[in-house]
Amino acid sequence: MPGSVFTFYSYKGGVGRSFTLANIAVLLARWGHRVLCLDWDLEAPGLGDYFREQLPRAPRGGVVDLVDDFRAGRFEPKKYILPLKNVDVLDFIAAGREDRGYIGQVQGIDWDGLYDEGFGEYLEKCRDQWTAEYDFVFIDSRTGISDIGGICTAHLPDHLVMLFTANRQSIGGAMDVARRADAARNLLPFDRSRLTVLPVLSRFDSREEYGRSEEWRKIVVGETSELYRTWLDQSVAPATMSRHLTLPYVSYWSFGEQLPVLSEKTPSADQIGFALETVAAVIACRLDRTDLLAENRDAYVSAVRASRQEFKHDLRVSIPRSSVGMANELVAELEKLEVRVGKSLSGDRSLLARAEDDARHLCLLVDGKVSRWQAAEVELFLHRTLGQDRRVIPILTAGTEAGMLPGYVGNLRYLRLGASRGSAEVARDLVGQLKGFTPLVETDDDLDLATVLGQARGSRLRPSRWDLVDELVTALQSAVGAGDGGRTKELAADLAVATKPRPPNGDDQHAAPPRVRQSIDWLLRTLEARAKTTTQHPNHRKDLG
Question: Pairing relation of β-strands 359-366 and 313-319?
Fold first, then answer.
């Protein structure tokens, strides 16, 4: 999938635009994305100051030199890229060289004339190259209304991150530019989807003047509500989303050009890194799944943070204190099979202090019953697993009855460990589950989940019915991802009823909304992938012991 271009824009200066861009770029790079930042604030470049300590050398060219290359018939945008040190895949293109000739170089550019000469097509080629090699391309745009504003706000971006402060000038100017950009985009000769705008309230102080801050929150939502219509989930109120898209004023970070996300690795809710993580997660999701953000911010951010995470361990074995010896034997057998294993002993509080998991899957060794600690560990694991293919696999000791376990464990495929089936055999079967040889979810023979999903995708329903289907499909994603067979069966049955063909009753019948189609397609791809691996070992049963 090609990368996305985000322009960071503010109508007025002093709102923290470059600060926000730089910190979010670092976060996305840390989370495993390939990021390119361009300083397009040609008259007052400053983005590079945030990356000063990470730059390998001073820039020898940049955005303004693209104009010279165009006039000379050269196409070499890569030569201006500076890879930043110690920040994963984060590259930077400066505004230009830092010398006395730069100002004259900028002042000598006639942007309107350049477009008449075909510079737009040249930039389009640059854009194609950038989006082919990076997941995210961030553009730091000039404030106000300028000659290059249309390039940054209409021509290049897929999304516009609009930063403003709580005053009429800043809000009104930002809204005016957003409308101008939307109108200008419709006149472009290039293939573009509709421009979406992410309104970010910046430098907002709600600590000292809480009453006045709440009044201004209402003003902000009222003035910017139209910007949410093209992307915000219908179940989420703009006022709720606006709170998630607010960057607080923290005086400590107002001095100099700083990157707090480098020092605030696990920020608390009152730190600016916390708010920056939220905005970064929305951008990483390309403004999608905002219902999940509204429901649980921490789970939303954690899922995005881990979506490209390289886990230290393939599997973490949760051990009750009554089965330490048995668990150690199992871990030894897994290590022989080259599985990277971590262990957590009931009561290990270091697990709760971690910002994220260090293991992809969780193996729950259950001896008689699920302990309170293990229940909390499963809850924490699932909390961090939102939308990801990560599994909880129970292993039951000989005397443990599956039917007496809570549903979130008893409905999962489990393995049996005991006198007749030792650690070596269980370890081999466990590896089979990790490699996908055993499906995570069983459904009734007379209710095929793929068929039900296909029926749902092709249905025509009333909007209220689609709201119900959306809830069911979203719940199915979580159930399938967690391997909860019982819950999957219940939801599949409900979905079959919700999408059962009915006689037309009026004209208010619509095809599946894009969001629902995307969720169904994800489920179908997941089921197809698991079906392929399952056919390699068709004789597995639920109790593999």
Answer: parallel
N- to C-terminal Cα separation, the chain: 42
* Ramachandran class of 338: left when φ > 0, alpha when ψ lies in -120 to 50, beta otherwise: left
Number of Cβ atoms within 10 Å of the Cβ of 107: 9
Question: Distance between CA atoms of 279 and 246, rounded to whole angstroms?
Answer: 8
Q: Which two tokens stand for residue 98?
A: 């830092």
Quick check: 37 and 28 in contact, CB under 8 A? Answer: no
DSSP summary character for residue 286: T
Which residues neighbour 529 within 8 Å (Cβ) at sequence distance 6 or greater?
Answer: 436
Residue with tokens 């008689």: 368
Q: By the 8 A CB rule, do 390 and 478 touch? A: no
Kind of pairing, strands 415-417 and 392-397?
parallel
| pLDDT 10s digits, 405-451 | 886 676 677 888 887 788 999 998 888 877 764 444 444 445 678 88
Tens of pLDDT along 150-187? 788 888 999 999 999 999 999 999 999 989 888 888 77
**Residue at token pair 């003035």:** 223
Calpha distance 483→188 (Å, rounded): 47
66-77 per-position pLDDT tens digit: 999 999 999 999
